[in-house]
Write a structure and sequence with these properties.
About 45% of the residues lie in helices and about 20% in strands. By secondary structure, the chain is an alpha+beta fold. This is Phospholipid-transporting ATPase.
Length: about 1050
């Protein structure tokens, strides 16, 4: 199972396997039953922070190092671990349930006992699986026997989860299995498939199909060998358009193309957590230094090494154990707030450990199809040169089509003067055509030049055969290799000319009057990325007229059509509106012209050397002086509010990169339409490069451009990254926007990884298809959009949203709040611990550097739990501006990218505040020293609690009613607990006036200067947001 090898697979006989194959299961879990506890504990203790506390707690089993009761160290550590284990367990159980649901999908399998039901996890290599329209394929199979098909013996499938393309792709069955009467006969023929080893290439497949003699017949058919290619395959995670097909399973489980193109889920650790971990290391360094200083001041007397350990334990509060648990609980609150936000309904948080990451995103990498766009093509514009029709004037087009006589007698009479039906056609072009005839000619051309197939399906009232016979409109569905083509054919139907039938050799159109026009398909030249055009030669059966229609991109069609003065200008105008422009042209051919072309075309196709070049040359001989009929403008409808969302992200300082599997022209159009590229920005289209020299020249050309968006294909990107990775990434990172088209799933993940390595900035990946999973899992923050391409991306993501527009609020409001609140919370917890550690240091130094604790037992545990926990934790509800203001001024988000809320500067300020307050409280208590030591404890501890409560009030920017409750509850808890703390605090003393005034003075001296400094700072150097809140 380790090495991938080619395989021989016997149809319907999985038991004949030559090697072990992986189980056909999906597993997104990080742990299993046995590795869960060790795995979680390892992930906790691999960080210095938690390991330090574990060693601390273990040291209390050594008598010489024990400073108090064991529970003072083990209870906090146990509490932290229990919360962490519980959170991880909940996430793992949810993940297990999602996987189980997918693995339990039921499929039909052909066996000797007939058709049996089998779970997807029970599917094996060699099984014959019946695949129907609704579910996605769960294994990689070879088509053998379509039950019903669009073009006889074929089917269409969609590969959106693999390459992001939602167009339909034609797949062909194994030819020698088509003669079998029923699908069950596949089990009777002794046949096998030889297939290549599993690999990540989703665009190629090599194999052979060998059919032997039938098992029940002595003189059956002789053995037949047939080559297999990608056209014979049905991928896992793909959908068939209609009908039912039977396929033999070739690959399962981890050997699937979709799985091999997906990286394993990694345990993501937020940048904020790493920064906190760094601060705790600094605090630990401070702890060691303080301990050594204390021992040094004792002149290393006696067993000084034991004294060092005792001081390390004594000052262990310098590194606060409650920091981790406070931050973890804060993350849970932030996740709950995201889920409960009514402005972004349906949002799911799958990784509750990294909400702060959303507040510091520098690069957003988004898929196109289904993420930025709805993948619903809408016909927007028909341009005839002198007149243009938009959405509001389509009724005029319809009236022209309805008014044009379509009957064959009229057309025949026009050409009756010649035995050659179209000999007068060239002369006719010189006569100025009426608008009506020009519109009709354009509509007819659009209805003919395509690869669309109408399919009829039963709708409950009409069965399939009847619908196909009567061309039932309600049962018809259009299927093609491109959604653009479907939108064009749907538009011609809306204006009156309907495509009702098609097979390999003919096409049928229905006129508004119900007349059927029959056309014979003589030749078809499919669209390729090199030619950027497609053509078709048809013969009108009613008139015998032969017409060559062609449509394509304006860049190639400009040199093919007759000279005109409007094509370039109008194409530019339509492109600026974000429309996909196609130029439609026509050329009438005589019978002699066509026969001559056909002979040369067949000859070119038979040549062995330079076949493709010779074929292209022959076709190009036709592509001259063609009549320009019209321009069409189709729009890929954007998701709701994509433009304002991208504008918000841009203003927030986030650079947006679009990574798509779609073609270059489509990606560029969408980038313009979505305003990913602004109107005043140039676009540099990186030309196709294959060698190091070409890449070098193109990079130099790009380097000379300034403030322009980059558009590059996946192949060129691969060459650039191979030879000039550093130079390319440096230039690309300076671009305001980057569009990468024809990107493989692994390439998307590679780009994310390179951005992280080269810039050190946080990345967020957004996608909705299975082909986006690798990118989502690689990014610091993965956001899945629940769309038409299924839930694969949203299930693998850290955050799942229902629409792209929700991303704005997720980042600007929740990301910003989560980061700022976590920064405030962490610094306050550190301040709380440093205060008590400073007091301990002062106390020890006054009493001859004795390693004696100032507070013992419940006082030390109560300080960081019931006395101060609620007010400090209530900082997770604090906010500097309202959510509406944060959305209105995304520039506020830009400030966070510098990491100022939690920096060494702010950390140092809080350290100085802690030292100041701890020293004031302790020296104040010693200064107001009375007769007994117990009074120092009472005065200093009460002042410490009051100082912490007042400091929380000082830090809060927007009060929430729960904050007030937390403050009052904590104060009440302390006052109530004084009754039980008689062994530490003299209850009669704290009721005296002397106690009250001393505590009040100490508290005021520790807090009042900070209140004054805060007021002066807000007065003379206010933060950015203060102007918006006033």
């Amino acid at each position: 199972m380790g090495d991938f090898r080619p395989r021989t697979v016997w149809l319907g006989h999985p038991e004949k396997r030559e090697q072990r194959y992986p189980r056909n299961v999906i597993n997104n879990q990080k742990y299993n039953f046995f590795t869960f506890l060790p795995g979680v504990l390892f992930n906790q203790f691999k960080y210095f922070f938690n390991l330090y506390f574990l060693l601390l707690a273990c040291s209390q089993f050594v008598n010489e190092l024990r400073l108090g009761a064991l529970y003072t160290y083990w209870v906090p550590l146990g509490f932290v671990l229990i919360i962490t284990i519980a959170r991880e367990a909940v996430e793992e159980i949810r993940c297990y349930c999602r996987d189980k649901e997918v693995n339990s999908q039921i499929y039909s399998k052909l066996s000797t006992r007939g058709t049996v039901k089998v779970k997807s996890s029970g599917i094996q290599v060699g099984d014959l699986i019946i695949v129907e329209k609704p579910p996605r394929g769960v294994c990689y199979s070879i088509l053998n026997h379509p039950f019903s098909s669009l073009i006889p013996g074929s089917c269409f499938l969609r590969t959106d989860q693999l390459d992001g393309e939602t167009d339909w792709k034609l797949r062909l069955p194994v030819a020698c299995t088509q003669r079998l009467p029923t699908a069950a006969d596949l089990l009777q023929i002794r046949s096998y498939v030889y297939a290549e080893e599993p690999n990540i290439d989703i665009h190629n497949f090599i194999g052979t199909f060998t059919r032997g003699n039938a098992t029940h017949s002595e003189d059956g058919d002789p053995p037949v060998n047939e080559s297999l290619s990608i056209e014979n395959t049905l991928w896992a995670s793909t959908v068939i358009a209609s009908g039912t097909v039977v396929g033999v399973v070739i690959y399962t489980g981890k050997e699937l193309r979709s799985v091999m193109n997906t990286s394993n889920p990694r345990h993501k650790v937020g940048l904020f957590d790493l920064e906190v971990n760094c601060l705790t290391k600094i605090l630990f360094g401070a702890l060691v230094v303080v301990s050594l200083v204390m021992v040094a001041l004792q002149h290393f007397a006696g067993r000084w090494y034991l004294q060092i350990f005792r001081f390390l334990l004594l000052f262990s509060n310098i590194v606060p154990i409650s920091l981790r648990v406070n931050l973890d609980m804060g993350k849970m609150v932030f996740s709950w707030m995201i889920r409960r936000d009514s402005k972004i309904p349906g949002t799911v948080v799958r990784a509750s450990t990294i909400p702060e990451q959303l507040g510091r995103i520098s690069y957003l990498l988004t898929d196109k199809t289904g993420t930025l766009t709805q993948n619903e093509m809408v016909f927007r514009r028909l341009h005839l040169g002198t007149v243009a029709y938009g959405m509001d004037s389509m009724d005029e087009v319809q009236s022209h089509v309805f008014s044009t006589p379509h009957n064959s007698s009229l057309a025949a009479s026009l050409n009756s003067t010649s035995k050659t039906p179209v000999s007068t056609a060239p002369a006719a072009t010189k006569v100025r055509k009426t608008i009506s005839s020009r519109v009709h000619e354009a509509v007819k051309a659009i209805a003919l030049v395509h690869c669309v197939t109408p399919v009829y399906e039963a709708n409950g009232v009409t069965d399939q055969a009847e619908a196909e016979q009567h061309y039932e409109d309600t049962c018809r569905v259009y299927q093609a290799a491109s959604p653009d083509e479907v939108s064009l054919v749907q538009w011609t139907e809306s204006v009156g000319l309907t495509l009702v039938g098609r097979d390999h050799n003919s096409m049928q159109l229905r006129t508004p009057s119900g007349q059927i026009l029959n056309f014979t398909i003589l030749q078809i030249f499919p669209f390729t990325y090199e030619s950027k055009r497609m053509g078709i030669i048809v013969r009108d059966e009613s008139t015998g007229e032969i017409s060559f229609y062609m449509k394509g991109a304006d860049v190639v069609m400009a040199g093919i059509v007759q000279y005109n003065d409007w094509l370039e200008e109008e194409c530019g105008n339509m492109a600026r509106e974000g429309l996909r422009v196609l130029v439609v042209s026509k050329k009438s051919l005589t019978e002699e012209q066509y026969q001559d072309f056909e002979a040369r075309y067949i000859q070119a196709k038979l040549s062995v050397h330079d076949r493709s070049l010779k074929v292209a040359t022959v076709i190009e001989s036709l592509e001259m002086e063609m009549e320009l009929l019209c321009l069409t403008g189709v729009e890929d409808q954007l998701q709701a509010d994509v433009r304002p969302t991208l504008e918000i992200l841009r203003n927030a300082g986030i650079k947006v990169w679009m990574l798509t599997g779609d073609k270059l022209e489509t990606a560029t159009c969408t980038a313009k339409n979505a305003h990913l590229v602004t109107r005043n920005q140039d676009i540099h289209i990186f030309r196709s490069v294959t060698t190091r020299g070409e890449a070098h020249l193109e990079l130099n050309a790009f380097r000379r451009k300034h403030d322009c968006a980059l558009v590059i294909s996946g192949d060129s990107l691969e060459v650039c990254l191979k030879f000039y990775e550093y130079e390319f990434m440096e230039l690309a990172c300076q671009c305001p926007a980057v569009v990468c088209c024809r990107c493989a799933p692994t390439q998307k993940a590679q780009i994310v990884r390179l951005l992280q390595e080269r810039t050190g900035k946080l990345t967020c990946a957004v996608g909705d298809g299975g082909n986006d999973v690798s990118m989502i899992q690689e990014a610091d923050c993965g956001v899945g959009v629940e769309g038409k391409e299924g839930k694969q991306a949203s299930l693998a993501a850290d955050f799942s949203v229902t629409q792209f527009k929700h991303l704005g609020r997720l980042l600007m409001v929740h990301g910003r709040n989560s980061y700022k609140r976590s920064a405030g919370l962490s610094q306050f917890v550190i301040h709380r611990s440093l205060c008590i550690s400073t007091m301990q240091a002062v106390f020890s130094s006054v009493f001859y550097f004795a390693s004696v604790p100032l507070y013992q037992g419940f006082l030390i545990i109560g300080y960081s739990t019931i006395y101060t926990m609620f007010p400090v934790f209530s900082l997770v509800l604090d906010k500097d501006v309202k959510s509406e203001v944060a959305m209105l001024y995304p520039e506020l988000y830009k400030d966070l990218l510098k990491g100022r809320p939690l920096s060494f500067k702010t950390f140092l300020i809080w350290v100085l505040i802690s030292i100041y307050q701890g020293s004031i409280i302790m020296y104040g208590a010693l200064l107001l020293f009375e007769s007994e030591f117990v009074h120092i404890v009472a005065i200093s501890f009460t002042s410490l609690i009051l100082t912490e409560l007042l400091m929380v009030a000082l830090t809060i920017q927007t009060w929430h009613w729960l904050m007030i409750v937390a403050e009052l509850l904590s104060l009440a808890c302390y006052i109530a607990s004084l009754v039980f703390l008689h062994e530490f605090i003299d209850v009669y003393f704290i009721a005296t006036l002397s106690f009250l005034w001393k505590v009040t003075v100490i508290t005021l001296v520790s807090c009042l200067p900070l209140y004054i400094l805060k007021y002066l700072r807000r007065r003379f150097s206010p933060p950015n947001y203060s102007k918006l809140t006033s």
